[in-house]
Amino acid sequence: MILLRSLRDTNKKVTLLNLFQTVVQTNKLHLNSVLPNKDDFVNINLQGNSLKYPSVWLRDNCQCEQCFHQSAKSRILNLCKFNVNVSIKSVVQDETSVQVTWDDDHVSRYALNWLKFRSFMPEDQLKYTKTLYRPVKTPWHGKDFHKVCAKHDYERILYSEAALYKWLQDLSTYGVALIQNTPNCDTALDGIVEKIGFTKRTHYGVKFIVENVANTSNVAYLSSNLQMHVDLPYYEYCPGVNMLHCLVQTLSEGGENLLSDGHHTASYMKNNYPDQYKLLTDIEVEWSDVGVEHGNEFFKLYRSSVICLDRHGYVKRINFSVPQRGSHFPGPIETVKPWYEAHSLFYELNQKFAAQFKTEAGDILVFDNIRLLHGRSAYEDKSDNVRKLIGAYVDWDEIYSRLRCLKAKLNPLEGI
Amino acid sequence: MILLRSLRDTNKKVTLLNLFQTVVQTNKLHLNSVLPNKDDFVNINLQGNSLKYPSVWLRDNCQCEQCFHQSAKSRILNLCKFNVNVSIKSVVQDETSVQVTWDDDHVSRYALNWLKFRSFMPEDQLKYTKTLYRPVKTPWHGKDFHKVCAKHDYERILYSEAALYKWLQDLSTYGVALIQNTPNCDTALDGIVEKIGFTKRTHYGVKFIVENVANTSNVAYLSSNLQMHVDLPYYEYCPGVNMLHCLVQTLSEGGENLLSDGHHTASYMKNNYPDQYKLLTDIEVEWSDVGVEHGNEFFKLYRSSVICLDRHGYVKRINFSVPQRGSHFPGPIETVKPWYEAHSLFYELNQKFAAQFKTEAGDILVFDNIRLLHGRSAYEDKSDNVRKLIGAYVDWDEIYSRLRCLKAKLNPLEGI
């Protein structure tokens, strides 16, 4: 079966909107015509649905050995010789594949499953985004914390791919997941990290210990109240996920964990305090950390807003830290006071929305460090009342990668 | 001497523009008035210049031991008790400092140098940005490559802080710098990396070897022509700087390095092909790498435009790689062909603007991986004609940090 439609885009300087209209109109005109040459689009019949593919994209994604390296799974065609205005001699579709013969007699063959998986229909693109690219995040209020913070078992994560997948899926969705029954040794965290890949090293090391330290270079190493914050906002490549293994928990009243979903707070502000929301997304402040650790000096500065949006307007990162906001304010002086008002409001709301709980020895609290704010109430630091955590960071690049590998293995996707 | 001016911002819902106008107008009205209470701004006389500081910012940056932790060099004031509408009882300035007494009788003292360094005057903010935050980047055309690519000596970088500083400053400015006279051993690169901090680990390892490998998982490990690209664009945290230590260079004609400054090309396109420039900044494509390395599976995907702009409209990252652009196109179908046209143009221009040269054994070619495109011409891979590079990545977070530490040491900045 041959199904072809064509669009002749004669005006090279059309805007995207015009182009879109041209596409729509031209398709109407040629809806049932079959024009084998100079086509910009090819229509393929997939299980009764007619799906449209751009010719240039098809040519670029030819899967033959000349164009695609099989073991590297990578495109190897030479871009210098690539013809954006490629045209088609013929399209032949059988039960399982489509064969396109190009104007230079090069032949490309595409499996129908492969094409279906790469559909340009917006609903198919959205499905792919949610199932493979990145799971959708679900914001939460602290009162629902016990519902969203699923409990996972250390040994099961190590030995079951399904358990590992479930844990990472929860972490991606809610930004928090608790691992229980962790062996009481300093290296237990490594086993979990290795199931994903490796840690993100920072100037505080490959891993870090959180306990009371005199004359510290970081306020996290004090026993006093630790206001809610994200770790290391002064890194452009801010650690994605924070894993805190509780080895010893204080027996006194204090030392409780606080967690707030910055995405929930941002969404609440957007709806109820749009002016302050705009200030926190627009105004960049300077995050800072200057000191010496393990004998190495560091002088980190990074400018960013408190709420960072991606180009689609979704929150991609939250920055917040009272101690690690620098004393330089890089913006216009007239924005300073309104910014401080919005900043205080953001913190107040996070406190209102926060969950409070206390991890136990054997717990690894895992949370999205560029989404959640975390803190800790003060505790009494005495020789018989200590608290010790071992922490490590892992970046989202590695976590999403492991999630996709597991997804492809546990729930094979046709045409991947 | 007491110098005070006030601004009463009675309308809390003003927009930023209105606010700015209010500031300007109110300042005109109160230009010579001295109102000691409820001030939003404090004016300080610094060497004959009157510099204005927001009261709320001054209170937030109180340097006393209650508000600022001296060894952690961090703000420790309690945000819950922080009053954004703080007002002032008195301001007393002497030869070296300013003392502010707040309405709750808290007293803050600021060194004049400290204040001057944190001036809110736009020209002072710009100077601070250029001297301490990040050096300005200078785009270049390949014909000027021999002028911009400074040659640095391996031993001098190891033993002279001034040489280390010069090298990193060149790298930040031009995105490329060559290190010569490197010892011929596999670990020589480590010495250079340790002068900065540590490498960025990826799924290819802490370091990587570039030589011809059969059945590779990456096309860089082939001897064929390697089209210009950036490394690992499928990482959201794409490696900042690429260091390639040439241990053995091929004796045949091929194996030449190609380097092009993506910032120069972007700027050229912005001026000469604004429509195509806009497409490359607006349309996100999917970068991809799927495979197995050292026994570990990876499945990396990241969506981003070819030219990524920051919120000020400056280029912050370039993504380009024929083999590592995925086969999924996440955007609207009608943008596909215009995008391919712009993409081909971008590559054509980079080829036109590229520098061509050949590193020698003992060279470490260091370049900004999120700015420059790099490539290599084909070479004949035979037993007597091999080529071997050892590579490592280091992120800009660590490089800028080291640059600032060195800057503060070599050219102390007053008030830092």
Description:
The structure is a homodimer of 416-residue chains. With 416 residues, chain A is of the alpha+beta class. Chain A folds into 2 domains: 16-120, NE0471 N-terminal domain-like, CATH 3.30.2020.30; 133-409, 4-Layer Sandwich (Double-stranded beta-helix), CATH 3.60.130.10. In chain A, helix 7 (161-174) packs across helix 12 (396-410), helix 9 (262-272) packs across helix 10 (274-282) and helix 9 packs across helix 11. The first copy, chain A, is 30% helix and 25% strand. In chain A, the strands form 7 sheets. A 6-stranded mixed beta sheet of chain A has the order 8-9-19-12-21-10. Chain A has a 4-stranded antiparallel beta sheet with strand order 11-20-13-18. In chain A, a hairpin with a 3-residue loop joins strand 5 and strand 6. Chain A is built from 12 helices and 21 strands. The longest helix of chain A is centred in the C-terminal third of the chain and has 18 residues, at 336-353. Chain A has helices at 16-29, 55-60, 112-117, 122-133, 145-148, 154-159, 161-174, 188-196, 262-272, 274-282, 336-353, 396-410; strands at 41-46, 49-54, 68-69, 74-75, 88-93, 97-102, 107-111, 151-153, 176-180, 208-210, 226-229, 241-248, 257-261, 285-293, 296-304, 307-309, 315-318, 355-357, 364-368, 372-376, 388-394. At the A-B interface, helix 1, helix 2, strand 4, helix 4 and helix 10 of A face helix 1, helix 2, strand 5, helix 4 and strand 15 of B.
| Unreliably modeled segments of chain A | 1-37
CATH architecture of the largest domain in chain A: 4-Layer Sandwich
Oligomeric state of the chains in view: homodimer
**Helicity level of chain A, as a percent range?**
25-40%
Shape summary of chain A: elongated
Greatest contact between two chains = A-B, 99 and 98 residues
What radius of gyration of chain A results from the CA coordinates? 27 Å
CATH superfamily of the largest domain in chain A: Clavaminate synthase-like
Tell me the number of structural domains of chain A.
Answer: 2
CATH class of the largest domain in chain A: Alpha Beta
